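ok so I'm stuck.
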Amino acid sequence: MTFPTQLPELRALAQQILATGIAAANPHTALTPFLTINTQQQLQIVLNNGHARHAPWRKIHLCAFGKAACAMTEACLDIIPSTMLAASPLIITNYDNVRNIDNALVMGAGHPLPDAAGLLAAQQLIQQLETAHADDLVLVLISGGGSALLPLPVPSVTLADKIVTTHYLVSSGATINEINCVRKHLSLLKGGGLTKYAYPAEVHALILSDVMGDDISSIASGPTVPDCSTFAEALTVLKNYRLLDKVPNAVHHYLSQGVVGNVAETPKITDPIFKHSAYTLIGSNSMSVNAMLAKTQELALPAHIYQHQLCGDVREEAEKWVCFAKKCTSPVALIAGGETTVRLTGNGQGGRNQEFALAFALAAEQYQLEATWVFLSAGSDGRDGPTNAAGGLVDSTTLTRIRAMQHNPDTLLQNNDSYTALAYSNDLLLTGATGTNVADLQLMLIHPN
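replied:
not stuck anymore, here's the structure
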C-alpha cells in the first residue's frame, strides 16, 4: 500500500498494526504448540530448546495467575483430559478478565495494587499445592500481573503494609525488576516460594512474559524459579528511591532482619526444590514487536524497530524519540516495545502510556517536528494505570484540540493528568481488556513534509 499522507488514514493504520501486536500475544495461540498428549497418553511439554518433558505423572494440578490466566487455562483444558487433573483448575486474574470457565474456580483480585481478594486467592492456592504428591505435576500458567494478584506477605508484614509499599514503589519511577526484588522478599509465594510449597511434586511453568529481556525470575516475581536477588538489594531499592522513611516500619524492619541473617533468604539455585522444576517461555513483548514489523512488511510499508526494550522516564524517552524522528527524511513506521516509568509528582489521572503519548505531542511541538505524524503507546493488556484506557494515540493536531477546550496540555502533564488531557483531545486509546499482557507497545507513523 502507499504510505498514507492524511491523519485519519494514519490513525486507522496505527490501530491496525497495534492490533496485530496484541493478537501475537493471544494466550491460546501462544500456548497450544507447547502441550500435547503423546502416544503413551502422557502429557508432553515442549521446552524452549526443542526438547520435550513427559512422565507418567499420577495427577496434574493446574493453576493459573495473571491477566491471561483464563485464556491460558482454556487452552490447556482443550488439550489435557479432565481425568488427568487432580482437582478443578484454580485461576486467579484481575477483575476485568474474570469470566466463567466450566469445572474451574476463577477468582478475581486487585491490580496494580493487591487487595484482600488476592490474599484469599493466594491462600486457596497454597491449599491446593499442599495436596500435591511426589509423583504429581504442578502445571503453572503465569502471565503479567501475577505479582499484584498473589499477595501472600510474610507473617510480620500485613496486607495493608504490602499495599502501601507497592503504591510507593510503582509511583517512584523504580523499574519492574526493582519493584519485584522488594516484593519477593516480602512474600511467601514469590521468588521461588510456589515451588517450595509444591515440593516434592514436580513443577512446570508456562510463561507469557511482560518483562523486558524475559527475565524469568522477574515475571510475576518468579514464583517457580530460583531468586538471585537479596535482602540487601531490596533494601537498597527503597533507599535509592527515598522510600525508607515512607514504607511501613514492619517492612523496613523485616528487610533489615533479612540483611543480617535473622530471616531466611528466598530459595536460591542450589536449593533441591528446583531439581524437578522447569519452565517454557511461550510469548513475550519482542514477539509482539516482531509481529507489528511483519504487518508493516505485509503492507509494503517502510519500517524500522526503534527499540526492542524501551525503558526509562516517559518524558525523557519522548524527547529522544522526537529527536530521532526529526532525522527521518522519508515516510516510515517506527516500532518499539518495553516498559517505561513515570514519576508521580501531581495528583492527576493517567498511566505511563498516556503520559508517554502526551509528552510526545509536547516534545514534537517543542522541537518543531515538521511532519504529518501519529504516535501511539499502549499497554498490551488494555489497561494503562488505574484507568479504562490502554494508552494514547496522538497526532500533530492533538495539542490544538486540547487548547481549543481551554486547557493547557503542559500544565496537565506536570500534574500527571494525561488521561484528562487526552480525553479533551479525544485521543484516549480504548481497547478494553485484551486478556493478555506482554508489557507496552509503541508505534509512530511519520510522513515528513
